[in-house]
Automatic annotation (TrEMBL):
This is TANK binding kinase 1. It comes from Rousettus aegyptiacus. Keywords: Kinase, Transferase. GO terms for molecular function: kinase activity.
Length: 28
């Protein structure tokens, strides 16, 4: 496993959580 793959996965999770968190706030 390359470090770049880990970074991409980490960024993907951060973006996914950020979008989900914002949508959750907007839904309230």
């Amino acid at each position: 496993m390359d470090q770049s793959t880990g970074v991409e996965t980490c960024l993907f999770l951060v973006v996914f959580l950020e979008i989900h968190y914002k949508r959750h706030i907007n839904s309230i």
